[in-house]
Structures are given as C-alpha cells and as structure tokens.
C-alpha cells in the first residue's frame, strides 16, 4: 500500500496572530504533525501564511499579493495541484484557506478535483461526498467572521475616539500618549513640550518658502536638529509630519499618505472617500495667526502649484506667474547661484 502524502496548510491573518498561543503557526503545525505521526503519513510540503489577508476573490491575485510580501504558500499550492503530488491537505479549520466564499470554494474544489482530500482538524474529512456542503457552511462562516471582526474594530475605533485617543495606538512625533502609571492604559494625548522650539523653527522655514526637499537639510544646517541617531532628518520626515492630521490635533482613519488636501488641517473641507476624520481631538502644534499663515502657505503648495512643479519641491511664487507669450505657468529653476522663474 502506497504511503499517503500530505501537505500542511498553516495560516494566520495578522502578524499578532502568528505569535498568539492558541492560533499560532507552531501550534497549528504541532497539531497537524501529531495527526500525521499517528496515521504514519508522509509530509511532502508545509505551506505557511505568517500574517497576510486572504480576503481575495481571485487566487492568482492573492498569490501575487503574498509573493510581494515574500509569502509563497499559494504559489506552491498551485504547483502541487498541477503536479497532483499529494493525497491529503491538512488545515486547522475552514477559515485558514480564505476569508471570502469565492476563494475558499476554489481551494476546496480544486483540491477535490485532482483526486485529493482535505482533513480539517476542526471538522474531519472533506471529500467527494461532502465537500459541497462544507464549502457552503465554511465559506459563509469564514466571510461572516471577517465582517463581524470589521464591525468590532469600528466599534473599538469609535470608543477610542470618544476618549480622544488615536485609532491605531500611535501618534505623530509632535505628540505623546499619557498613560495611567498603574495600569499602563492610554489616558490622553498631549503635545511633546520638549519639541516646541523645533516646530517654531520648522514654521519659519515653511513660511520662508523653502521646499520640503530643502527643509530637512536646513533644519540641520541652520538649527542643528538631528534624529535619535544624531543624524539629519531625511527628506520625507517633516513633509509627512505636517501633512498628518494628528499634527493638527485631528484623528483620521483610513488615511492614505497620498490623500493630501486642506482637509488635513481645516474642518469643513472635502474629505477623500473612505476617510473618517474627527477634528479638534487634542491640541495642535500651531495655533492662532501662525497656524493661519502656515495653512495659507500649505494651501498654496497643495492647490496653486501648476505645470511640472510639485508641492513638495515648490519655491515662493511657483505657479503664481503666467508667461505672457506661451501662457504656461512659470516654475522655479536654479543652477549654482543662478535662480529664476521659467
């Protein structure tokens, strides 16, 4: 009698789950190996998904996304299906394959179609006789579990915002989280008083019209500011900081780095689709007339810059002048000590 060849499928959705004692990859592998040893089967491959979403419809799209993160589980499974070189696919439970009914169904049907079987450590054997029923029940369960998880996360986010706390437990470097000395729980968010002079000097450079690409160098050359390693801050640091809603005292959810606009610092401005903002939740870095002057300069960089000029590289007057001959917007140019609008 030929020895039964098996593949172990080990998967978690987040990196935190990868270390969770109950659901961790080592725990899943231990349980699967105990079954293999008891049945005297042969393991031909172990496929791991150490913290990656499986909420995809198309398996090739999911495999591609995983591949970019250095995870080859679906790539290998596709190869094993093609080679038909295993008899049993062992999995912890139905939610480990996928978080959508479509992808879960594909994995199950493809495995059964090549003549193999699935053994779920939670549900037992899945074969020609019951796989359609298992697809229906497990696919619905896996997808519903994620939907409920998203609802719980939304509820948790709303609860934290009501307390004036960030959604993802982190704040920009301009602020700090104040914690209860006994429990360690977050209580409030306050300005980091030790950095106020840095922000005054940063405001000076912004209002002078220096480009973001020049500001990080000038913060070091003129004022001597360095990062924790004693080195000059890199280019994106101050740009990302000032275009972070938290820097202005607002809490934003689903905020993408490319979703720049006046909404970041000004309530009442159009907010990008999918972004949720709660304004004035803690103290902003700049207030009063200084804040209004900086907002005006940021608006110029975000809204007025035309032609090939970029907001992060703009100089004073860039985009504000139009050539009388060709009607193109003039942009800043320099070479050595020579500077001009062209």
Explain what this protein looks like in three dimensions.
- With 342 residues, the protein is α/β, with parallel strands linked by helices.
- The chain has 10 helices and 11 strands.
- The strands form 4 sheets. Strands 2-1-3-4-5 form a 5-stranded mixed β-sheet, with helices on both faces.
Give the arrangement of secondary structure elements.
Blueprint: E1 5-12, H1 15-18, H2 25-39, E2 42-50, H3 59-68, H4 73-83, E3 88-91, H5 101-113, E4 117-120, E5 124-126, H6 131-162, E6 175-179, E7 186-191, H7 196-207, H8 212-221, H9 236-242, E8 251-253, E9 276-278, H10 288-304, E10 332-335, E11 338-341
Parallel strand pairs: 1-2, 1-3, 3-4
Antiparallel strand pairs: 4-5, 6-7, 8-9, 10-11
Helix pairs in contact: 5-6, 7-8, 8-9
Question: What is the helix/strand order?
Answer: EHHEHHEHEEHEEHHHEEHEE
Average of the residue pLDDT scores: 83
| Low-confidence regions | 16-22
- Percent of residues in helices comes to 25-40%
Give the oligomer, counting copies of the same chain as homo and different chains as hetero: single chain
Main sheet strand line-up? 2-1-3-4-5
Query: What characterizes the major β-sheet?
Result: 5 strands, mixed
**What is the CA-atom radius of gyration, in angstroms?**
28 Å
Strand content: 15-25%
Strand segment tally: 11
User: Tally the helices: what do you get?
Assistant: 10
Cα separation of the termini: 82 Å
What structural class do helix, strand and pairing data support? alpha/beta
Shape: elongated
